[in-house]
Amino acid sequence: MADGIAALRAAVEAQGLVPGAAKAKRGKPGVTLVWLRPEPVTLRVDAKDVLWLETYLPWVMAGGKLHKQVKALLAEQGALCASREGHVSVGMPGGAVALPALLTAAQGLRDMLQAEWPDYATGVFAKALV
Fold first, then answer.
1. Is residue 48 part of a domain?
2. How many domains does the chain have?
3. How many CB atoms neighbour CB 129 within 10 A?
4. Which single residue of 49, 66, 79, 113 could bond 95 by disulfide (Cβ 3.0 to 4.6 Å)?
5. Helix (H, G, I), strand (E, B) or coil at 7
6. Does 50 reside within a domain?
7. pLDDT tens digits along 68-102
8. Residue 89: helix, strand or coil by DSSP?
9. CB-count burial class (<10 Å; 0-12, 13-18, 19+) for 96
């Protein structure tokens, strides 16, 4: 597991970002990361070697209009979408080396939210720091 966390930390640093605290969950390595929103998210590799930004989009109703649009956009980029308890995690197959592609997918989501869901983008996804 330490090797998995080291690989994640190295991948984050290679992107010019600063990895946060190491987090293990049910034997899966993870590190926190601040990316495009003020709250940190956990970056984790699962048993199928999928790299996830866990609970990246908060409060998205499964099956709703926004959820469907998110899933379609991610599918176009070869990314995955998982919903749990009203939160969407964004994944990319390939483990830690998939981080650049995952960050590109996350950027695409943010751009779509700002253009098409501005209330969600500024009120829920990335609340203004006041």
1. yes
2. 1
3. 5
4. 49
5. helix
6. yes
7. 999 999 999 999 999 998 899 999 999 889 999 99
8. strand
9. buried
Q: Is 3 helix (H, G, I), strand (E, B) or coil?
A: helix
Q: What letters, b where the CB count within 10 A reaches 16 and e where it falls short, cover 15-53? A: eeeebbebbeeeebbbbbbebbbeeebbbbbbeeebbbb
Closest by Cα among 58, 55, 46, 44 to 12? 44
The single-letter code of the amino acid at 70 is: V
CATH of the domain at 76: 3.30.1370
Question: What is the DSSP code string of 19-59?
Answer: ---B--BTTB-EEEE--SSSS-EEEEE-TTSEEEEEEEE-S
Residue 24 confidence class, pLDDT cut points 50, 70, 90: low
C-beta of residue 79 within 8 angstroms of C-beta of residue 101: yes
**What is the domain range of residue 51?**
36-125
DSSP state of 87: E
Is 9 part of any domain? no
**Any domain includes 94:** yes
Helix (H), strand (E) at residue 104: helix 99-116
- The position carrying tokens 């996830």 is 52
Residues in a beta bridge with 57: 88
